[in-house]
Write a structure and sequence with these properties.
Blueprint (H helix, E strand, L loop, with lengths): L26 H18 L21 H12 L3 H21 L3 H24 L6 H13 L5 H27 L3 H27 L2 H39 L10 H25 L9 H29 L3 H7 L3 H5 L1 H16 L12 H23 L6 H11 L9
Helix pairs in contact: 1-3, 1-13, 1-14, 2-14, 3-8, 3-10, 4-5, 4-15, 5-8, 6-8, 6-10, 9-10
Length: about 425
């Protein structure tokens, strides 16, 4: 893909390196970020009412009827794709910030504080609300992204695609090799599967019936035994997607979406079919697995799904950008922008709402709401978030967590209320 474009119409930037207001923001990024928030919640909500030890095993085999259909649609078209889309946006944010601040000492100090604050938010989120936090991995990947410094845009593109593809292919190959192991090795995986089942049952009991601090201790345990080991894979994958997001902004395409409509149309035409083929191959391998007992097929399906997630995420991005060029659809999509401007606040609020609804110390709905009901709940909560975000930003410059994040990053408290 050609990385040379005409000089984009870049929004005016403030003279000092400081938090920017709405006038300096790239509207398309806020819209896509709001869209990604919906997909993230659709993906995450299942794991507020299903033990974390089963993550990666696909669709819950107990789901039937409309719940099975809803689970299948989310698994095929949402799961993993919106995580990648959200990661692309993080890389874009880095590129926007580094463009304003350069790669000098001031930028590096500010961005390092920004990542350390995000790491603290992520760790607190994992223990206090939900062990499936992604912010800690973003913080580490963000520091690694900064360590690369000012590299060429073509290098960003090559590293981003190359590292992501390599990790996905290695996962699929590992699954294929494990599937070919003799029965003796399968017995070892069966033993590990029994241990995982015991851990899952214990976690379910605590989340369903335990008090807040019991649940917090279990969240810390799940985070340490499941999420942190997974960071070995998640962090380099996030870093590769960050590079692709930074490449998109540095190429000028996100600044000039109307002038780049042809490029985004071609992007959608190439990426969506390619992504669907890989996802279809993954689905053919299987959509639900008996955990560690079927580690080979599970990893093979995961690797194939990963290969489809990136092109589909890019395709979704392209479709939203193209929609912003259609007057009627643009007006509808623009409703998502306030939620996107408050992405951190809304992401954490989603966890607060879901944990309160499903855990025993709240409304105790653990295991009682099917997948279809979860999807309806997500849309209801998200609509409220969109409305509330618009109301909040009509009075304040930033979302509450965004304001705190900027304060910690820049070392100076920015004004919160609008003049």
């Amino acid at each position: 893909m050609n990385t040379t474009v005409a000089s984009p119409a870049v929004p005016p930037l403030p003279g000092a390196f400081a938090p920017i207001d709405a006038a300096q923001r790239i509207h398309a990024l806020d819209v896509v970020r709001g869209f990604a928030l919906l997909g993230i919640f659709l993906m995450n909500i299942e794991w507020f009412t299903r033990p974390f030890q089963q993550m990666g095993s696909g669709i819950d085999p107990a789901a039937a009827g409309i719940d099975r259909a809803a689970a299948w649609l989310v698994y095929v078209f949402v799961q993993g794709k919106f995580w990648v889309l959200f990661s692309l946006l993080f890389g874009m944010g880095f590129a926007v910030m580094s463009t304003r601040g350069g790669h000098g000492a001031q930028f590096r100090r500010t961005y390092a504080r920004r990542c350390m604050a995000l790491l603290a938010f992520g760790l607190l989120h994992a223990v206090l609300l939900w062990p499936g936090d992604i912010l800690h991995a973003y913080a580490i990947a963000g520091l690694l992204l900064m360590a690369f410094g000012e590299i060429g845009n073509r290098v960003r593109l090559g590293l981003g695609i190359g590292v992501y593809a390599a990790l996905a292919v290695l996962t699929a190959l590992g699954g294929a090799l494990l599937s070919a192991l003799p029965a003796e090795a399968a017995a070892e995986f069966a033993k590990a599967g029994e241990e995982a089942d015991v851990a899952a049952a214990a976690a379910s009991s605590i989340y369903a019936e335990g008090g807040y601090w019991q649940a917090a201790l279990q969240r810390a345990r799940d985070f340490g035994t499941v999420a942190l080991p997974a960071a070995v894979m998640v962090v380099p994958m996030a870093l590769s997607v960050f590079m692709l997001g930074a490449w998109l902004v540095r190429s000028g395409r996100m600044h000039d979406i109307h002038g780049q409509r042809g490029w985004f149309a071609r992007l959608a035409l190439w990426t969506i079919p390619a992504g669907l083929v890989s996802v279809a191959l993954s689905v053919r391998v299987g959509t639900d697995f008996d955990g560690m007992r079927e580690m080979g097929p599970m990893l093979l399906a995961t690797g194939l799904m990963l290969l489809g997630n990136l092109p589909l995420a890019l395709g979704y991005l392209a479709l939203v950008v193209l929609g912003l060029g259609m007057p009627g659809l643009s007006r509808l999509l623009s409703w998502l922008a306030p939620a996107g401007r408050m992405a951190l606040s809304n992401y954490l609020l989603q966890s607060l709402v879901a944990s309160t609804l499903f855990y025993g110390y709240g409304f105790g709905l653990w295991g009682q709401v099917g997948r279809a009901g979860q999807v309806l709940l997500v849309f209801a909560v998200f609509v409220l978030q969109v409305v509330a975000s618009g109301w909040w930003l009509s009075r304040f410059r930033f979302g509450p967590m965004e304001w705190l994040w900027r304060w910690l990053s820049y070392g100076k408290r920015p004004p919160l209320r609008l003049a």
